[in-house]
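Handout, section 4.2: multi-component inputs.
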Amino acid sequence: MVEGPGVTTRAASRVARTAAAPRGASWIEALAVHAVFVLVVVFFLVPFLWLFTAAFDADAVAYIRFPAAPTLNNFVRIFTEHDFGRALLNSVFVAGSTMVLDVIAVALAGYSLSRLEWRFKSWITYAVLLLQTMPLSATMVPIYGLARALGLRNSYAGLILIHAAIELPFLVWLMKNFFDNVPRYLEEAAWLDGRSKLRALAEIVLPVARNGIGVVAGLAFLAAWAEVLMMIILIDSQDLKTVPLAFYETLRTQGGYTEVQYGLVAAMGVLYAVPVMALFLMTRRMMVRGLVASSRGL
Amino acid sequence: MLARNSTYIAGVAPAAVLLALFFVGPALWALYSSLTNLALVGIDAANPRFVGLDNYTRLFADPDFWTVIRNSVTFVVGSAVIGQFGLGLALALLIDHAEHRRWWLGTLAYGAVLLAWVNPTLIAGFLWVAMYDFFFGSLNHVFLSSLGASSVDWIGSFPMPAVIVANIWRGTAFTMIIFLGALKTIPPDIYEAARIDGANAWRRFWDHTLPSLRPIAALALLSITMSTFGTFIVIQTLTNGGPGNATEVIALFAFHTAFKSFSIGYGSAIAVVMLGLNFAFAIAYLRWSRARA
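Output:
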């Protein structure tokens, strides 16, 4: 492996660096750094503390308090009174289909871009990166108009196509880099055996690049699951309502924020956020690397 | 070139169609409709007229537009440049330091910052709606009242700082992770040499750590500037641009113009301005990252 020596050097330098770290930190330094960490942990975790206590509190309020009698009542109510089951199914279906579509489109495009021999190839890569930085909030009005003209509003097809497109530039770029590291002699041997290019990709190259496919699938699913802007402008039918829309609706349609049914919204929030957090924490290393390369936020 | 690459061109096609439809298409459509008086309802919806640059002259003469630009700049400087960038850098340095000292609280802080980032944006907005609530929010009802202080109308009196803090909470992890990665690539012998030369911790930090972070810092800054410039969900959930138009940033302005005033043509002109500014940032970003490669 080419990376071998590099990896060793890095590992060695880490050891050296740890060993070279100054010993005997003063207690003032330790105290100051720890105080900062405590403040940081409080600032970043307190809102979640509220979310997770309110969801189990029968009459949740806007401030943090531990429920007198923890209950699952809020969760029962969102399913019986707010049709949250429907929203969950819709979200799983849309995010799952988006994932499948993205994996296919990204595997084909990433591999092709990696193997394409053309003078202007680097321009394509830059164009893809440029698209990646385009803010959705700028194109949402045209996308709304386009979806209306093509009959893609209030349809699963519209949701799936648009969500597949949103993450595409970044995922194609990511996957191209994965394929760049797969040696060509693998597929060339398969061609000599008489396989077509498509079969060689599916049977020989993809298994080697399965880590990349895993990252693409995970990111595509998570992004489509969490995304809300396109959901808001594309869907107003109750039948097609997804998790973020159910959440948004329960939050916004009450008369003013003071009358928000916090327990119900928090319960929906827990079911909306927990899958993302769980999947992310399970695959943290991969995801952090992937998400860092993607820079578009909302 | 065609014959040799035909299979590969076919392979790019599905992705290219999706990108053309939902990225290039909408951008071109925005450019076109910004030159018309297209509306969402009424006569202009059916028969839009070509109006030249009228939408743009109207936009640049609109005092609201300049308020919105000022809000956007304040929001980007406050939440991206000072907040996410400054706090992200500080946290990366502290966490890296804690790692060498084997202080586990650093790992906990890292996880907490990360959690706020992977959390869906809509929930981030909602959590801060609850935190800021005047009557029962945790900030007033738990924090201030335990200090014996009277309640503060956070969103009413300090709308811009309120949305900035919420966005810092949501997005600091990105710069923190970038800088943590960069810190790990600084060769340790630089520090060793400096220590032997008798440089103290501050000198080593100013002379070695910061300069080696500079190239990645420029990229991170451009990148979060672009994503913060397009911020929509956090602000819409918290204030929806209010009170008045105190927190109306450019993305909300485009949305409200198109979907509340129903003027698509005018809304598209705003979108084109957004896309233009973003394009400028993106070109700077690509040039900078290419210069480094």
